[in-house]
Amino acid sequence: MFLFLISLIFFQSARSLQLAGSAIVDATPVANCAPLAGYNHGQRRVPYFPLPQLTNCTTWMIPNKGRVTDDGIFARALALEIDGVKLIHLAIDAIGSDKGLNDAVLEAAVARGLKTPPSNIVISGTHSHSGPGAISSDFLWNIAPATDLLVPHVRAAMR
Questions:
Q1: I want to staple 149 with a disulfide (CB 3.0 to 4.6 A). Which of 29, 55, 127, 157 is the partner?
Q2: Domains in the chain: boundaries
Q3: pLDDT tens-digit profile of 7-54?
């Protein structure tokens, strides 16, 4: 029964779909030193953990030069218009996204003329453990966020 109801919703939405578009852009950070996501233990920790070791990329993890961007970091977008309502999903190859990255992306999109309300936009990470970690500047993490490195490149890629 559940699958039947889901299929009804899906096919109803498919009939009213008016526009769809997608894009992919390279968002690989130039500063290739962000730590790999989820690998903040063992030999990847700074020597005197939990004492931070301040670098331009991280404080608790050893940067992984060359590892984060071996295959590139990409941002992907899917835009739909259903019954006149525009919906956008943006995903970046990172462990996640935080408010800082989301706000920067929305600010850049609005500056470029995007009129879709923020409530209709979902920004997320693909949760890749092969991409940058340290994506939050929240006190809980107390690490220099990779978003500081990603934001300028996401903005530039949107141009």
A1: 29
A2: 18-158
A3: 545 555 555 668 889 999 988 776 656 666 766 666 666 777 667 777
pLDDT at 77 over 90: yes
Task: Please answer whether residues 36 and 16 qualify as being in contact, where contact means their C-beta atoms are separated by less than 8 angstroms.
Answer: no
Q: Are the C-beta atoms of residues 60 and 46 closer than 8 Å to each other?
A: yes
Strand ranges (E), 27-116: 74-82, 85-92
User: In the chain, helix, strand, coil percent, each to 5?
Assistant: 30, 25, 50
Residue 92 forms beta bridges with which residues? 75, 125
For residue 79, what are the β-bridge partners? 21, 88
